[in-house]
Write a sequence for this structure.
């Protein structure tokens, strides 16, 4: 019923694929084994996916003890990303949130080497001020306690997504989100040494959430990013300005018909693994 404790799903050529969160009742019918107790769902999910985006950190503070519990539940090599608290990203003056940023990062460092990118999501709402966002970007530390940190900007106001935002992200080494959704700005300019994609078009009528052709397409795009290229079929704001060097890639199936997201992630992982085996054999 449970995966062996030493099982794990490693990244594939630097590509990690996962979902948002791990507690969702419909997954107990189509992802988790029947009878698996809820307290072991993270343990199981982390052995069948190579990353999970933590969403609960957006809504409420988590204790260092909780982070350590999550850290200890997942296998070596597994990586979490995490959404930063809304109390920070929804502040009226972002430049004044330095203390809150420090508190959040100081706590989540308890994830240790399981800590991946931190996602700063600015929802469509009060208009962002460019100078304020630039001052906020300067508050995001590149390292903490000897550990390199990676930050991601998810700006959802279409009016704010332009060449200035891309330049700002590149200047501070921040990734921007490629969002596969018609509901949010969707641009694939590479602005950091890693790529972060949120895939949001799963459909319940499809067993794997996406069609086989769509999953094949995403496998190819993720491999292009990982190899240092940029997919030529995704929209960009400006000309390519990213170094053509190998990158780590994080791809999450999020939202939409959420019940299908684990199946989509596993189907995409399987495609990536097959492509890797084919290349090694040739």
């Amino acid at each position: 019923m449970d995966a062996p404790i030493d099982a794990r799903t490693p990244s594939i050529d630097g590509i990690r694929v996962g979902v948002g969160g791990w507690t969702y009742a419909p997954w107990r019918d189509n992802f988790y084994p029947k009878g698996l107790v809820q307290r072991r769902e993270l343990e199981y999910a982390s052995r069948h996916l190579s990353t999970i985006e933590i969403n609960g950190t957006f809504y409420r503070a988590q204790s260092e003890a909780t982070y350590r519990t999550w850290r200890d539940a997942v296998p070596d090599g597994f990586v979490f990303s995490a959404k930063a608290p809304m109390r920070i990203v929804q502040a009226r003056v972002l430049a004044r949130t330095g203390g809150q940023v420090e508190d959040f990062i100081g706590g989540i460092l308890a994830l240790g080497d399981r800590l991946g990118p931190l996602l700063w999501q600015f929802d469509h709402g009060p208009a962002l001020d460019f100078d304020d966002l630039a001052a906020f970007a300067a508050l995001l530390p590149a390292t903490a306690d000897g550990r390199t940190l990676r930050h991601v900007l998810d700006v959802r106001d279409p009016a704010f997504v332009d060449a200035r935002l891309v330049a700002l992200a590149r200047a501070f080494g921040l990734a921007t989100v490629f969002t596969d959704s018609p509901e949010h700005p969707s641009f694939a300019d590479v602005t950091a040494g890693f790529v972060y994609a949120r895939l949001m078009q799963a459909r319940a009528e499809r067993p794997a959430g996406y069609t086989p052709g769509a999953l094949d397409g995403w496998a190819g795009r993720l491999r292009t990013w990982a190899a240092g290229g940029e997919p030529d079929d995704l929209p960009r704001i400006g000309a390519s300005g990213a170094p053509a060097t190998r990158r780590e890639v994080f791809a999450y199936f999020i939202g939409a018909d959420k019940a299908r997201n684990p199946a989509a992630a596993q189907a995409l992982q399987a495609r990536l693994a097959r492509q890797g085996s084919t290349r090694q054999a040739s």
About this structure: The CA atoms of residues 130 and 165 lie 8 Å apart. The chain has a mean pLDDT of 94.
